[in-house]
Amino acid sequence: MSVLIPQGATLSQAATELEKAGAIRSARQFVLLARVFGGGRQIKAGEYRLLAGESQSDILKDLQGGKTLQRKITVAEGVPSILVHEALMKADGLSGQVAVPAEGSVLPDTYAYNRGETRAAVLARMQKAMTDYLAQAWARRKPGIAVSTPAQALTLASIVEKETGKPEERRMVAAVYSNRLKQNMMLQADPTIIYPITRGKPLGRRILQSELRAVNQYNTYAMTGLPVGPIANPGRESIDAVLDPAQSTALYFVAKGDGGHVFADTLEQHNANVQKWYALRRARGEM
């Protein structure tokens, strides 16, 4: 069973909550026990998970030690802020409202919280984690990288995050986009087309030609340089990859059918790789 001891509750009020939940038989007896054997230690507010048949002395130790039930909310790498907001609003035991956080402001991780906490407090922890990690990562960046500010690093990292799910490829994908930025080439990253349409949610269909040509602040098929901001919340590894990309002259990459990509230095090599990918898709009945 779980019992919530409200913030500011007295010993008597906590005992009453325990009795209501069936954790103890008598609130009065529990108070007497606490005063005699509790050593004068204060109880702590929070949600407690108590075992059936747990002794009153053990329950008292739990309350005095603040051994509260920890609930958790997980933000996966590459999740857009609109889905972070949905997860926060659905999280059981949180209170209050929050707006959709700024894209890229949340560090993907698993966050523990107590019942009764506000959504704003949990979101603040998520955002502080990103601010702290980005500052640490920027401080150890390699010289000669393609981005000149932490904000640019975050934006590029969000593209890297969306382009590959393979950890071992992140630094190579970061190298391709870094090389393109340095040569003033269009990044031509498909996820940047999708973001203005769905705010990061899956598109669920193929990209239309009209969407490829759309002029906006995100479409890297219609502009050079970085989008106006992140297109997702990148994880630590993608941030690190952008700040220490692989040593490579590659300018292109395409899927190779196993979840990974094949990289190329020239357009001729890339076109040949694309034809291999198309042939594989045709053999699978996907085209």
DSSP strand count: 6
Question: What is the 3D form?
Answer: elongated
Weakly predicted, low-confidence segments: none
Average predicted local confidence, pLDDT: 92
Tell me the fraction of residues in β-strands, as a range. 5-15%
Series of secondary-structure elements, N-terminal to C-terminal: EHHEHEHEHHHHHHEEH
Q: Largest sheet, order of strands side by side?
A: 1-2
Radius of gyration: 26 Å
Largest sheet: 2 strands, antiparallel
Helical residue percent band: 40-55%
Q: What would you call the structural class?
A: mainly alpha
**For the terminal residues, how far apart are their CA atoms?**
55 Å
Number of helices in the DSSP assignment: 11
Explain what this protein looks like in three dimensions.
By secondary structure, the chain is mainly alpha-helical. Helices cover 45% and strands 9% of the residues. The chain contains eleven helices and six strands. It has helices at 11-21, 27-37, 56-65, 81-90, 119-139, 150-163, 170-182, 190-198, 209-213, 236-243, 267-283; strands spanning 2-5, 46-49, 71-75, 109-113, 252-255, 261-264. Strands 1-2 form a two-stranded antiparallel sheet. Strands 3-4 form a two-stranded antiparallel sheet. Strands 5-6 form a two-stranded antiparallel sheet. A hairpin with a 5-residue loop joins strand 5 and strand 6 (261-264). Helix 5 runs parallel beside helix 10, helix 6 (150-163) crosses helix 10 (236-243) and helix 7 (170-182) packs across helix 10. The termini are far apart. The mean pLDDT is 92.
